Amino acid sequence: MLHLLPIRLILLVFSVLVGLSVLLAGYAGWVGGGDTLRDATGLIRWSSTMASALVITCFMGWRWIPAVQLFIFPYLGGKWSGTVRFEGQNGPDQRDVSLEIKHTLFGLKLLLDSDESTSWTLVVHADRNPDFDRYRLYYVYLNERKEGCPGAGERYRGIAVLRVVWVTKPELQGDYFTDTHRRGTLHLKRNVVTSWWKIWR
Q1: What is the pTM of this model?
Q2: For residue 48, with 0-12 CB atoms within 10 Å meaning exposed, 13-18 middle and 19 or more buried, which class applies?
Q3: CATH for 78-193?
Q4: Where, residue-wise, is CATH 2.40.128 in the chain?
Q5: CB 117 within 8 A of CB 145
Q6: pLDDT along the chain (201 residues), means of 10
Q7: Element (H, E) at 52
Q8: Which of 37, 49, 89, 124 makes a 20 to 30 Å CA pair with 162?
């Protein structure tokens, strides 16, 4: 997720804020009094405060303001449900699935559950096409068959390419492929958004 942040803009804003804080500190008489150690301590304190405030403001802006999310990447945290469609032994088949997503600016974690298996994240890469505001997830996962089901304990890896459809009720749609030569499609809708105060999710 950090690779999608407008780093140049953030650094520019940070530089301007630090410059303004130094000027304000000088006008207020907090620095420039002739005591070098006191001035350096004051500047470090101001700069670190401004840097922390900027990081917190950027995170909260992305987490809580939809327009900022669309500028970086939509917030996907919460509980989702939908279907996995695939070609079974007796023709087309499908399974109901639930998905939980933990999403911060530092990364994404997905946990996909069905009656027969559980899949969890190995690697997720978020991608945004800035020209057309298109969003995708490239999701590498490990799937494990549940106890009591055929092939219990069997594990295999897979990759899913998911398109984020940002509507009133966001959707994830895409294809998946596994190293056991299985393939299919995923269709999910978000049912519950992670509570606004759970900033770690």
Answers
A1: 0.82
A2: exposed
A3: 2.40.128
A4: 78-193
A5: yes
A6: 72 76 73 73 76 81 88 93 91 94 92 95 92 90 92 92 92 95 95 90 87
A7: helix 36-64
A8: 89
